[in-house]
Amino acid sequence: MFSFFKSHKKISIAIIAGIGLTLLFIYRQSSNGVKITSAKAEIKNITKYVNAPGETDVSDKYIKFSQVKANIEKINVRNGSSVKEGDIIITLNPASLKASLDTASSDLTLANTNLDSNYFDILAAEADVKAKKLLRDHAQERYNGDNSRDNKEDLRTAETNYQTAVAELSELKNTKESLKQKANSAYSSYLSAKQNLNNTNITAPSSGVLALEDIREGSEVLSGGRLFSIVNTQALNFTAEVDETEIAEIKIGQRATILLDGRPNEKFKGQISEIGAKTKTTDSGSTAVNVKVTFEDTNVTPIIGLNGETDIEVSSKEAVVVIPFEYVEEDDEGSFVWVKERGRAIKRRVETGIDSVELVEILNGLTEGEEVIKGEGLKEGVKVK
């Protein structure tokens, strides 16, 4: 029992001591004043920006696909070079194209052989149907003259054989249509392979900058595989992902500044040229709308997929009252600032307008030259220094 009161006595003393130190701190703070920093309301121009990440793209490009399965013998133009319409970009290996032609020729021969075989099978089946029909008719006549058990069984057998022959003929005729389609397809493939053998050079369909796919000399490309793109150097743009909460502020024609990760020391000017018609989910899981910013500088190397960000100028005002944004605070009643009157902190309600990266427009509540303050633990009427 004694030890219990002894231990609790120590705790009580510690609590009282802690309260005393806290009261002493508050007293000293109250007597010395809260340490503050200050700024003056000024008349300045202010611009509000919407920042959005994105990447470079082009609105005008032609993608070339391989028409055949072949090996690349030579790539005649370096990646990123300017090309003109008709320039030879890739030369395909004629040996691989000759192999494709041989395969197409064999397929065509087989298809025609199958079609011819089906033709003769149909002739034989038609003759068989006629013969089986005659046998059926004769069996019917015998049964009509003598409907004995034997004649009845002969008629049943003859009818079955006739129906089987008719079904086989019908199946052969249905097969004929399928074989004709295969033969026509094989013939088209043969003509295409023959033409490809005479056109081993793949040319640029338009003028622009060449963007090769991941191909190299000696590698095989498949039919339908991408070979290269021709990019219009006058159509470079930046596709930005604007958050859905800010999309209402974006308008066609607004000016923007583009910063690219690959060219960190440069800033590029652009304009909003297109606003997407639907939302998308970004890699971070947020909802955004694609906004296209067209570069004003046409000398930018049109590299597709460069990451970066853009600052879109959504509104601006001239000669308005502004203060640094960190001096504006919010509570349940709205925005307010702290001002200093007779050495004490006074809360003052303000109405804010647009804001930039560093400044906030003050519509009501402050005038030019008035001083606003901030400090840790500011309260109404507390002494400040």
TrEMBL record:
Keywords: Coiled coil, Transport
Span of domain Multidrug resistance protein MdtA-like C-terminal permuted SH3: 320-375
Major location category of this protein: other
Record's GO cellular component terms: efflux pump complex
Subcellular location: Cell envelope
Top-level division of the source organism's lineage: Bacteria
InterPro entries: MdtA-like_BSH (IPR058625), MdtA-like_C (IPR058627), RND_pump_MFP (IPR006143)
Sequence ranges assigned to domain Multidrug resistance protein MdtA-like barrel-sandwich hybrid in this UniProt record: 66-231
Keyword Coiled coil on entry: yes
Residue runs in coiled coils: 155-189
GO MF annotations in UniProt: efflux transmembrane transporter activity
Similarity-based family: Belongs to the membrane fusion protein (MFP) (TC 8.A.1) family.
Protein name: Uncharacterized protein
Organism of origin: candidate division WWE3 bacterium RIFCSPLOWO2_01_FULL_41_18
